[in-house]
Write a structure and sequence with these properties.
Layout lengths: L2 E5 L3 H9 L5 E3 L5 H7 L5 H19 L5 E12 L2 E3 L5 H11 L3 E12 L2 E13 L4 H9 L20 E5 L2 H5 L3 H10 L11
Parallel strand pairs: 1-2, 1-3
Antiparallel strand pairs: 3-4, 3-5, 5-6, 6-7
Amino acid sequence: MKKIILASDSPRRTMLLENAGIAHERVSPTADEEEIFKRLSDALPDMVVSELSRAKALSVKKALPDRDIIVIGADTVVSVDGIIFGKPKDRADAKRMIDSLRGREHDVYTGVTVLWDDESVTFFERSEVFVFEMTDEETEDYLDTKEPFDKAGAYGIQGYFSRFIRKINGSYDNIVGLPVARTYRALCKAGAFVEGDDRR
């Protein structure tokens, strides 16, 4: 059986795959995300996350050329009025993002690429998130948790910020960082599972 490699540093994506019984290894991608963001500065969010997911998956596939593997690359962004939010640079940037989300809805996009042999599948998922109004004190308290600083849009729906989520439309897993059901189907296409495989 081919090994599944997750091209990501995200413990949340690992958690999602583990919860779904998908055994895998995690390898850090080396794609230049900042360069891709700059090159695609005028592109739609779905194009940005799709390109980033491909770049991450390819960087790991190239680093492991002799291994019989299936590589998953993924990237998530938050979009507010067409403006893309990646991970905040600092506290002020995180506050800017949270202030933009308070009391309104926004979109979360995750792009996924699955690479195997000489084939690949790339797709994206979009979810809508509705946030309750927040006070300035609640915002500052949230920033004090340090939770925002390694997450697109400066929040994690599965953590402290869950107290401010009014509702979602779409995949919850997508908002966490990986739409598991669609990823599983792509892995099936790549031949990751056979009858009786305990990763199913």
